[in-house]
Amino acid sequence: MRAVASTRGFFRRVNAMLTKELLQLLRDRVTLATMITIPLMQILLFGYAIDTQPRNMPTAVLLQESSDIGRTIIRGLENTRYFRITHQVHDEAEFDRLLQSGRVLFGIEIPANFERELRRGDRPALLVAADASDPVATGSALAALAPLVQTVLERERAIPQTTPPPFEIRTHARYNPAAVSQLNIVPGLLGTILTLTMLFFTSLAVTREIERGTMESLLAMPISPVEIMLGKILPYVVIGFFQAAMIVAAGYLLFEVPIVGSLALLAALTTLFLITNLSIGYTFSTLARNQLQAVQMTLMFFLPNLLLSGFLFPFAGMPQWAQWIGEALPLTHFLRIVRSIMLKGSDITHLRYDALALVILMLVAMTIAITRFRRTLD
Amino acid sequence: MSSAVADGPMPVPPGVGEIAIEVEGLSKSFNGKQVVRSLTMQVKRGSIYGFLGPNGSGKTTTIRILCGLLTPDTGRGTCLGYDIRTDAEEIKRHVGYMTQHFSLYQDLSVRENLEFVARIYGIPSPRRAARAMIERLGLQDRAEQITGQLSGGWKQRVALGACTLPEPQLLLLDEPTAGVDPKARRDFWNEIHALAAEGLTVLVSTHYMDEAERCHEIAYIAYGELLTYGTVEKVVANSHLSTYTVSGPDLTRLAEELEKRDGVTMVAPFGVSLHVSGPDAQALDAAIAPYRADRALNWQRAEPSLEDVFIELMGQATTRRS
Question: Which DSSP letter does residue A9 get?
């Protein structure tokens, strides 16, 4: 009898607690709305955007002979939609420059006398340079290349498929020839970890003052919104810098990720990236009404950073609209910067576009934060 | 605490008159609900001005308008000669505002909080200023204690210290002693009087009648309207309230009966006696006449207390609004 009574008491108390939680949840309309719309938005966004078989990867071609067979191969490659020919170059130096700046992922060279040697059965070499700093992006296209060229040749030029094929594909995987995934993952993790921690540091900065009641005093003091913002961001730049140093050191010592380029440039652009993310987090803090909303906004912003920046899935493989979204995310630019400096040894002239993008994102975030910061309690 | 203060009165800045606060026709609404209605008031420099009124009467809103945290819908005014609409930055520099809820950083020590305030206001030597304030507050033993762990009384004292550290000319204190024990309240008020003696103007809101009586002047606000103001004596005299005290057996039943009679507007128990009041002396006399004959009851004419006056004012305001 007593057991029954106490069981009933248990359910009654759980019910009381549950009812209270529901009431509080229903009162916070913004949180409720995000709970419903965010999963829907994200499944649509990521479902359409992510393709692990990347297509339309920017490719440069160098035709050393002007033969029908060369043009046929190039057209055939384009038809597969793996490759998109963006550049016709005239020497190998141009190849290097395009690959170095990350504007193309592949360079395909059809050497002189290719057709003649092919017909003679000399197995000429088709030269392919691939940017392997992201092995996921380039790997599947490379694997598909040989059967693809054979099919094209048979269909268009009536050259029978043989084993081994009548030509040789000489692949040169640049920057990460062994396709070691750590070489891609460690720079990516650097950006991802910094994004998450920086966003969280500042996204609670203003809401915490409001929730603890300290904001009212602060507003009554002679300090301007810009001063408050800078004072709240700067300490975390130092902390973020230490985090970055630890990750880079661990990558170098434990995973043998080289730092081919300038360490000073990496440090400078990492600092820029830290400030950009801290500014965005701070902006969320001025938009959110409580800490829970700030956390939700942070996660909402972090997921596309993770999925659309080119870290987990190849950037070049995403549809155009998803790439535009990606361009608006700091991690996209930072990934290019880190991979370029650490693996390719790029200098600032190669990275000026991405550095500029980070500066613009930072300024936009700061402007929103300052204009949204409420100087009164109205 | 007050004995430590002996620097003499602060000089009044040139070009600024004897009036610290002067506002006219202030109104403020939130979501269509009018919180302050056409409020006009004046506070003299160097005086302690008590701001009284029931909960939700617009005291906090008025104080926030005065220190530039809220913009009034209508009306104009100055604080220390600075326009409350346009000179918010100057007001912030010269006005100390102590919020109703404790608003220092609870996870910082007393010293760290004070140094923070000193730095924000650009005081040349923040460490020295904080140390001096800690001594003045008698907090030497607690300087390194985390502020959140202090008792209510000590917290209020630290908060007052933080407000006065930048040497403001005007202090706005919003219910500074709510929930603080009587000894701590008395110390707090001694400090306020010491500050006023130095030339500081203090506007303080409170619910405590004994605190109201320690002010130089008071104002009573209900439903956003200023109902009366002046010295305590003047406010009591202006109320034209007549009051009797009555003691005897079965006061509960007596109170119930008296409340129903015309001419009696208020019956309130005070210990073993009742306060019976009405705005019209003749009507009150008529109303209680039958009970004065009762030998068991001891009737005496009395001065209305400030509390009697305020409750009467509130009753009038409620009647007028409904």
Answer: H
For residue B70, give the nearest of A217, A223, A376 by CB distance: A376
**Spatial distance between the Cα atoms of A27 and A22, rounded to a whole number of angstroms:** 9
Residues A232 and A92 in one domain: no
Q: Judge whether A205 is closer than 8 Å to chain B, CB to CB.
A: no
Is A216's CB within 8 Å of B69's CB? yes
- Domains identified in chain A, total number: 2
B63 in contact with A at a CB cutoff of 8 Å?
A: no
CB atoms within 10 A of CB A47: 8
| Closest Cα in chain B, distance from residue A210 (Å) | 10
Name the domain boundary from A174, A209, A234. A174
Q: Which H or E run contains A154?
A: helix A135-157
Which of B93, B103, B106 is opposite residue A217, by nearest beta carbon? Answer: B103
Does the beta-carbon distance from B92 to A222 stay under 8 Å? yes
* CB atoms B95 and A220 under 8 Å: yes
pLDDT digits (tens, 9 = 90+) for B32-64: 899 999 999 999 999 999 999 888 889 999 999
Q: Hey, is the C-beta of A231 within 8 angstroms of any chain B C-beta?
A: no
DSSP output for A97-153: HHHHTTS-SEEEEE-TTHHHHHHHT--PEEEEEEETTSHHHHHHHHHHHHHHHHHHH
Same domain, A365 and A253: yes
Q: Which residues of chain B does A376 touch, with a Cβ-Cβ cutoff of 8 Å?
A: 68-71
Flag the least confident range among A62-66, B105-109, B173-177. A62-66
DSSP state of A342: I
In a domain, A159, yes or no: yes
CATH code, domain with A162: 3.40.1710.10
Q: What is the mean pLDDT of residues A191-199?
A: 94
Give A139-179 pLDDT, tens digit per residue.
777 877 878 888 888 877 777 777 777 888 888 777 776 66
Q: What is the pLDDT of residue A264?
A: 94
Domain that holds residue A246: 181-372
For domain B240-303, give the fold: Alpha-Beta Plaits (3.30.70)
Distance CA A308, CA A315 (A): 7
Whether residues A187 and A166 fall in one domain: no
pLDDT confidence tier of residue A1, bands split at 50, 70 and 90:
low
Alpha-carbon distance B76 to B25, whole Å?
7
Are residue A333 and residue A226 in the same domain, yes or no? yes
Q: Is A151 in the same domain as A205?
A: no
- Out of A214, A376, A378, whose CB is closest to B103? A214
Report CB contact under 8 Å: B99, A378. Answer: no
Q: What is the ipTM for the molecules in this complex?
A: 0.82
B92/A221 Cβ within 8 A: yes
Residues A341 and A204 in one domain: yes
The fold for domain B2-235 equals: Rossmann fold (3.40.50)
Among residues A174, A202, A221, the one where a domain terminates is A174
Q: Is A212 part of the contact surface with chain B (CB cutoff 8 Å)?
A: yes
Choose the mutation target among A221, A227, A232, A375 for the interface with B, i.e. most B CBs under 10 Å.
A221
Q: Please state, in angstroms and rounded to a whole number, the distance separating the CA atoms of residues B261 and B278.
A: 11
Task: Tell me, yes or no, if B104 comes closer than 8 A to chain A by beta carbon.
Answer: yes
Q: Are A191 and A247 contacting, i.e. CB atoms less than 8 angstroms apart?
A: no
DSSP assigned state of B12: P
Taking the alpha carbons of A21, A23, A29, A34 in that order, is the dihedral positive or negative? positive
